[in-house]
Amino acid sequence: MSRPNFFNENANRTFPFRSGSAGIDTPASGSVTMKQLPDDFIVDCGFIMGPQSSFVEGEHQVYLDKIYRVGSSRLIYEFRCDAPDLAEVPLRFTRQVTDPEYRTEFVESDTPNAIQASLSESTSLSLSASGSEDCGEPYWSGYLVTGPLESVTDRLAPDTALTRSDSDAVLVEPTLIQNLNGSQVISLNLANADRTRARRPGDCEAYTWDFTLEDLYVNTECLQGDIKLRSGYNVALNQITLTNTLQFAAIVNAGQGEPCEEVPLFPGETPPVDSANGLLAGDFYCNEVLRTVNGLRGPNLVLFAGTGVSIIADNETNRVVIDVNLVDLTLCTYSTVSISESLSESELISESV
Amino acid sequence: MSGIRHPEYLKSLEDTRYPFLPTASLSNGQVSFPEGTFLDAHLYAVAGSGRYYLSQVVVQSDKLTLTISDQGQSPRLTGEIALPIIDEVVRLVDQYGRSGGMLVSEPARLALLPAWGLGTYRFDREQTEFCVGCQMPVPAAGVAGFRLENGDTVTGEVWLIGEDGVVLSIEETEDAKGNTIEVLRVDVVGDPLYLQRLCEPEELFIPVNPIRVIRVINDNVSYDCTPDEQGNFNIQMNDSLASDAALRVRTTSEGIVITVEGSTP
Asked: In this structure, is the dihedral angle defined by the CA atoms of residues B138, B141, B146 and B147, taken in order, positive or negative?
């Protein structure tokens, strides 16, 4: 006994939709609601939820949202998903009414970056660091096999639509959905956070740079394919095969040793305008700032005046006067006359007494 | 014999061994799966290699845990069913929580499993191997995810951000065949002013105008003295090697003492 093949079978049952979600009390002719969707409208379909689809099985559903007839010659089948990131990303399949029975079509949505770019254009926002439009995988993709299209055109007049209502959820069988959400790394993107930039005291002119300071500087977007890792300055890169681990360790002199000059955060990074020393952050070299005096550090350094010394501060001129004036010391008296002259003077004094 | 000519999809699978192979015994000698315990399956473990089979069922007082292994006999997917059973779909995830498919059944059909009693029930591939049609290949994506130390797995468009003195950049090199390969370079160069960044709120940090030069004025002569390479400046007396020098400069923990040795009245 011959048996119907898979598509023939499906043209007479709810599949690929869940039993009970469509094909309920379908009238023999005339217009239908989504709940009454005839079994032979769609005989098979399947969907792959992409790595960034945010789809969770058991929580989100794929459903037929709309069938509309554009003019008299074209039919569009629109599927949607209630995963949050897919709310505005339908999959649309197109048929010409002259297409044969069991026509199969594969469709994929735009990538997240392309959709974000189009949203940015529509809202006059500039495309931020969101990646290249060509980078990434489609949000989702799928295939659709339709039954005899005259069955649809008999029930759907030109320029009308069969649209799902809130109570009509024509749900796709869960095993027709492959969920690849979170299953792969699509691309690598590099950025560097801003360095800590020097600030000037309130009474000094502030530093300025000839580029706009950002929290993040995007270095490279959409790295795909084979990528090598290289340890640069002060980095030890270890591969632990047993645990499939890459370990980066910051070790002085590891990797390519210590740098002889500053490493820019992005190509073309420049020091502050009118910088004297060329340091990118606007700070000073170690030998440009008085950090210690005789090994003593600040912020307050005390100078004690011992015996014989006076230390006087002059705040107005930013001066410290260290005067070795021998104050408080017992000083030896001395004379410029000769001993003989002294004696004779003493003698003179004695005689006079 | 009467029957439904076109039974619904799942109905048509009720009395078959599907999603298991027709040759699967569905029994480990201790317990058995009745036909129709599961109605459908869809298996696509990210790290799996195919030929999946139901390798273990653990019955606990509050849940059932199903384990799916692959041809390497490694456990690849697990699914949990809370008791009492209300779910029709058993979601399967891998060891990192990534989706790996599902088993479709009905609560009444799954309710047979707790009747086995508490314990662990193991099965061989010959007993519970799934049909090839249930096993979907997964694209070989290369690096599937980055596993972080805290257990999180990062996937999708991954951003690597260097901060606090770490600088990331991209270079290019060539492989042995002359093909250009991008190289991700990691530099650790420090952030000299990071203490400034630690001030929270930011206003707590008050920038200073540091002393950079000490100008020594001696009568009409002046000298500009700069620090050494370590930022240190030394004050010392002249003739420091002379044994009878009277001027002394002593550095103490409290400060620098400048004094002249001699008698006081």
From this structure: positive
Residues of chain B with Cβ-Cβ distance to A12 below 8 Å are 5-6
Confirm whether A236 is domain-assigned: no
- Buried/exposed code over B92-122 (b: 16+ C-beta within 10 A; e: otherwise): bbbebebbbbbbbbbeebbeebbeeeeeebe
If asked whether residues A16 and A54 sit together in one domain, one would say: yes
Whether ipTM tops 0.90, in short, is no
Contacts with B87 from chain A: Cβ below 8 Å: 58
In terms of residues, how long is chain A?
353
Q: What range defines the domain where residue A323 resides?
A: 293-353
pLDDT tens sequence for chain B (265 residues): 566 777 888 888 888 999 999 999 999 999 999 999 999 999 998 887 889 999 999 999 999 999 999 988 789 999 999 999 998 999 999 988 889 999 999 999 999 999 999 999 999 999 999 999 999 888 776 788 898 888 888 988 899 999 999 999 999 998 888 888 899 999 999 998 888 888 888 888 888 888 888 888 888 888 888 888 888 888 887 766 666 778 888 899 889 998 888 777 7
Tell whether the torsion through CA atoms of A20, A21, A24 and A29 is positive or negative: negative
Boundary (domain end) residue, out of A240, A264, A289: A289
Q: In whole angstroms, give the CA distance from residue A343 to residue A245.
A: 100
Helix and strand counts by DSSP (H, E) for chain B: 4, 17
Query: Considering its fold, how many domains does chain A have in total?
Result: 3
A257 in the same domain as A218: yes
Using the 3D structure, point to which of A264, A289, A314 is the last residue of a domain.
A289
Q: Are residues A353 and A259 in the same domain?
A: no
Judge whether A241 lies within some domain: no
Query: Is B133 touching A (CB cutoff 8 A)?
Result: no
Among A290, A307, A323, most B C-beta atoms within 10 A, so best to mutate, is A290
Of B160, B193, B211, nearest to A281 by CB-CB distance is B193
Q: Are residues A309 and A276 in the same domain?
A: no
Q: Model pTM?
A: 0.75
Q: Does B84 touch chain A (CB under 8 A)?
A: no
Same domain membership, residue A157 and residue A279: no
In this complex, do A182 and B99 lie within 8 Å of one another by their Cβ atoms?
Answer: yes
